[in-house]
Amino acid sequence: MRAWLALTAFVILGGSAHAGDISSAYTDLDWKKDCVTYAQSEEGDGDWANLACAGYRGYPVLIGYDDARESVYYGFPSDDMTAIWESFSGFNTAGPKIEWRIETNGDKAVPFAVIHRREISNPENDNKPTEVLVVAKVAQPEEHEGCTIGLVLATGNPQANDQARKLADQRAKGFACGKDKREVIGNVPDFGRVDN
Protein backbone atom coordinates (compact mmCIF):
# COMPACT_ATOMS: atom_id res chain seq x y z
CA MET A 1 0.00 0.00 0.00
CA ARG A 2 2.81 2.42 0.89
CA ALA A 3 4.56 1.66 -2.39
CA TRP A 4 1.35 2.42 -4.29
CA LEU A 5 0.89 5.74 -2.42
CA ALA A 6 4.52 6.68 -3.07
CA LEU A 7 4.12 5.85 -6.77
CA THR A 8 0.89 7.84 -6.99
CA ALA A 9 2.51 10.85 -5.30
CA PHE A 10 5.49 10.61 -7.67
CA VAL A 11 3.24 10.51 -10.74
CA ILE A 12 1.15 13.46 -9.53
CA LEU A 13 4.15 15.57 -8.54
CA GLY A 14 6.12 14.54 -11.60
CA GLY A 15 3.21 15.39 -13.88
CA SER A 16 2.76 18.80 -12.35
CA ALA A 17 6.46 19.53 -12.68
CA HIS A 18 6.14 19.22 -16.47
CA ALA A 19 3.13 21.53 -16.72
CA GLY A 20 4.29 25.08 -17.36
CA ASP A 21 3.06 28.28 -15.80
CA ILE A 22 0.45 30.07 -17.90
CA SER A 23 0.30 33.85 -18.08
CA SER A 24 -0.76 36.63 -20.43
CA ALA A 25 1.25 39.07 -22.53
CA TYR A 26 -0.26 41.88 -24.58
CA THR A 27 0.76 43.35 -27.93
CA ASP A 28 -0.63 46.21 -29.99
CA LEU A 29 -2.01 45.88 -33.50
CA ASP A 30 -1.91 49.05 -35.57
CA TRP A 31 -2.08 48.55 -39.33
CA LYS A 32 -0.11 51.75 -39.98
CA LYS A 33 2.70 51.10 -37.47
CA ASP A 34 2.90 47.34 -37.01
CA CYS A 35 2.07 45.87 -40.44
CA VAL A 36 3.50 45.53 -43.94
CA THR A 37 1.23 44.96 -46.94
CA TYR A 38 2.64 42.11 -49.03
CA ALA A 39 -0.26 41.71 -51.50
CA GLN A 40 -3.23 43.84 -52.49
CA SER A 41 -5.84 44.34 -55.16
CA GLU A 42 -5.18 46.22 -58.36
CA GLU A 43 -7.56 48.93 -59.46
CA GLY A 44 -10.84 47.34 -60.53
CA ASP A 45 -9.99 44.07 -58.77
CA GLY A 46 -12.10 44.55 -55.67
CA ASP A 47 -10.93 45.72 -52.25
CA TRP A 48 -8.58 43.26 -50.60
CA ALA A 49 -5.14 43.17 -49.02
CA ASN A 50 -2.82 40.78 -47.14
CA LEU A 51 -0.71 42.15 -44.32
CA ALA A 52 2.04 40.74 -42.10
CA CYS A 53 2.19 42.36 -38.67
CA ALA A 54 4.42 42.28 -35.62
CA GLY A 55 3.14 39.90 -32.95
CA TYR A 56 4.74 38.38 -29.87
CA ARG A 57 8.52 37.76 -29.84
CA GLY A 58 8.82 36.83 -33.50
CA TYR A 59 5.40 35.21 -33.82
CA PRO A 60 3.69 37.13 -36.65
CA VAL A 61 0.08 38.14 -37.08
CA LEU A 62 -1.33 37.87 -40.61
CA ILE A 63 -4.38 39.84 -41.64
CA GLY A 64 -6.45 39.06 -44.69
CA TYR A 65 -8.73 41.98 -45.54
CA ASP A 66 -11.56 41.62 -48.06
CA ASP A 67 -14.58 43.89 -48.50
CA ALA A 68 -14.58 45.30 -44.93
CA ARG A 69 -14.09 41.85 -43.38
CA GLU A 70 -10.94 40.58 -41.68
CA SER A 71 -9.43 37.16 -41.20
CA VAL A 72 -6.61 37.08 -38.67
CA TYR A 73 -4.03 34.29 -38.36
CA TYR A 74 -1.65 34.12 -35.42
CA GLY A 75 1.76 32.49 -35.71
CA PHE A 76 3.67 30.84 -38.50
CA PRO A 77 1.86 30.13 -41.79
CA SER A 78 2.81 27.55 -44.39
CA ASP A 79 5.84 28.29 -46.59
CA ASP A 80 3.71 29.82 -49.34
CA MET A 81 2.10 32.23 -46.80
CA THR A 82 -1.37 30.82 -47.34
CA ALA A 83 -3.59 30.83 -44.30
CA ILE A 84 -7.17 29.76 -43.87
CA TRP A 85 -9.87 32.41 -44.15
CA GLU A 86 -11.91 32.68 -40.96
CA SER A 87 -14.18 35.63 -40.40
CA PHE A 88 -17.62 36.87 -39.54
CA SER A 89 -20.10 37.25 -42.38
CA GLY A 90 -20.89 40.82 -41.27
CA PHE A 91 -18.48 43.73 -41.66
CA ASN A 92 -15.90 43.44 -38.90
CA THR A 93 -12.64 44.78 -37.60
CA ALA A 94 -9.99 43.45 -35.23
CA GLY A 95 -9.26 45.31 -32.01
CA PRO A 96 -6.01 47.17 -31.33
CA LYS A 97 -4.82 44.84 -28.52
CA ILE A 98 -4.02 41.11 -28.62
CA GLU A 99 -3.80 38.96 -25.49
CA TRP A 100 -1.33 36.09 -25.90
CA ARG A 101 -1.60 33.10 -23.56
CA ILE A 102 1.95 32.00 -22.78
CA GLU A 103 3.16 28.73 -21.28
CA THR A 104 6.54 29.06 -19.56
CA ASN A 105 8.80 26.10 -18.79
CA GLY A 106 12.12 27.25 -17.35
CA ASP A 107 13.52 29.83 -19.76
CA LYS A 108 11.24 28.79 -22.64
CA ALA A 109 8.04 30.82 -23.15
CA VAL A 110 5.69 29.65 -25.92
CA PRO A 111 2.51 31.47 -26.97
CA PHE A 112 -0.11 28.78 -27.58
CA ALA A 113 -3.31 30.84 -27.87
CA VAL A 114 -4.58 34.37 -28.37
CA ILE A 115 -7.68 36.25 -27.34
CA HIS A 116 -8.57 39.08 -29.69
CA ARG A 117 -11.61 41.36 -29.53
CA ARG A 118 -13.52 41.92 -32.76
CA GLU A 119 -16.29 44.38 -33.59
CA ILE A 120 -18.99 43.12 -35.94
CA SER A 121 -21.47 45.47 -37.60
CA ASN A 122 -25.01 45.39 -36.29
CA PRO A 123 -27.54 45.68 -39.13
CA GLU A 124 -30.14 46.99 -36.69
CA ASN A 125 -27.94 49.75 -35.24
CA ASP A 126 -24.78 51.02 -36.96
CA ASN A 127 -23.68 52.79 -33.76
CA LYS A 128 -23.74 49.62 -31.62
CA PRO A 129 -21.52 46.90 -33.07
CA THR A 130 -21.45 43.46 -31.47
CA GLU A 131 -18.21 42.65 -29.67
CA VAL A 132 -16.86 39.09 -29.68
CA LEU A 133 -13.66 37.65 -28.22
CA VAL A 134 -12.04 35.37 -30.78
CA VAL A 135 -9.97 32.61 -29.17
CA ALA A 136 -7.38 31.15 -31.54
CA LYS A 137 -4.66 28.52 -31.54
CA VAL A 138 -1.23 29.97 -32.35
CA ALA A 139 0.60 28.25 -35.22
CA GLN A 140 4.05 27.05 -34.16
CA PRO A 141 7.16 27.18 -36.41
CA GLU A 142 7.19 23.41 -36.92
CA GLU A 143 3.43 22.83 -37.23
CA HIS A 144 1.87 25.79 -39.09
CA GLU A 145 -1.50 24.90 -37.55
CA GLY A 146 -3.44 27.92 -36.35
CA CYS A 147 -7.19 28.50 -36.28
CA THR A 148 -10.12 29.79 -34.28
CA ILE A 149 -11.02 27.43 -31.45
CA GLY A 150 -13.81 29.46 -29.88
CA LEU A 151 -15.96 32.58 -29.90
CA VAL A 152 -17.16 34.35 -26.75
CA LEU A 153 -19.83 37.04 -26.89
CA ALA A 154 -18.36 40.07 -25.10
CA THR A 155 -21.25 42.51 -25.49
CA GLY A 156 -23.19 42.49 -22.22
CA ASN A 157 -21.08 39.65 -20.80
CA PRO A 158 -18.93 40.65 -17.80
CA GLN A 159 -17.47 37.11 -17.64
CA ALA A 160 -16.23 37.15 -21.26
CA ASN A 161 -12.51 37.57 -20.52
CA ASP A 162 -12.48 34.79 -17.92
CA GLN A 163 -14.46 32.49 -20.21
CA ALA A 164 -12.08 33.17 -23.11
CA ARG A 165 -8.98 32.48 -20.99
CA LYS A 166 -10.43 29.25 -19.67
CA LEU A 167 -11.29 28.13 -23.20
CA ALA A 168 -7.81 29.02 -24.46
CA ASP A 169 -6.01 27.25 -21.63
CA GLN A 170 -8.11 24.08 -21.77
CA ARG A 171 -8.51 23.54 -25.51
CA ALA A 172 -5.96 25.38 -27.65
CA LYS A 173 -2.94 23.08 -27.38
CA GLY A 174 -4.82 19.89 -28.27
CA PHE A 175 -7.23 21.44 -30.80
CA ALA A 176 -7.13 19.88 -34.29
CA CYS A 177 -7.78 22.67 -36.80
CA GLY A 178 -10.26 21.71 -39.49
CA LYS A 179 -11.47 18.70 -37.47
CA ASP A 180 -12.48 19.74 -33.97
CA LYS A 181 -15.56 21.89 -33.53
CA ARG A 182 -15.01 25.38 -32.16
CA GLU A 183 -16.83 26.32 -28.97
CA VAL A 184 -19.30 29.20 -29.00
CA ILE A 185 -20.36 31.00 -25.83
CA GLY A 186 -23.32 33.34 -26.27
CA ASN A 187 -25.30 34.39 -29.33
CA VAL A 188 -22.48 35.48 -31.62
CA PRO A 189 -22.86 36.66 -35.25
CA ASP A 190 -22.32 34.16 -38.09
CA PHE A 191 -18.71 33.04 -38.43
CA GLY A 192 -17.20 30.76 -41.05
CA ARG A 193 -14.01 29.11 -42.32
CA VAL A 194 -12.73 28.62 -45.86
CA ASP A 195 -9.63 26.49 -46.49
CA ASN A 196 -7.35 27.65 -49.29
Provide a count of the helices. 3
Topology order in helix (H) and strand (E) letters: HEHEEEEEEEEEHEE
**Mean pLDDT, as a whole number?**
89
Gross morphology is globular
Low-confidence stretches: 1-17
Descriptive report:
It contains three helices and twelve strands; from the N terminus they run H-E-H-E-E-E-E-E-E-E-E-E-H-E-E. By secondary structure, the chain is of the alpha+beta class. The strands form three sheets. A six-stranded mixed beta sheet has the order 1-7-8-9-10-11, with helices on one face. A four-stranded antiparallel beta sheet has the order 2-3-4-5. Strands 6-12 form a two-stranded antiparallel ribbon. The longest helix is centred in the N-terminal third of the chain and has 17 residues.
Features:
disordered N terminus, four-stranded antiparallel sheet, globular, 12 strands, six-stranded mixed sheet, alpha+beta, 17% helix
Would you kindly provide a brief summary of this structure?
The protein is α+β, with helices and mostly antiparallel strands. Helix content is 17%, strand content 46%. It has three helices and twelve strands.
List the helices and strands and how they pair.
Elements: H1 2-18, E1 21-28, H2 31-34, E2 35-40, E3 48-56, E4 59-66, E5 69-74, E6 85-88, E7 92-105, E8 108-120, E9 130-137, E10 147-153, H3 160-171, E11 183-185, E12 191-194
Parallel strand pairs: 10-11
Antiparallel strand pairs: 1-7, 2-3, 3-4, 4-5, 6-12, 7-8, 8-9, 9-10
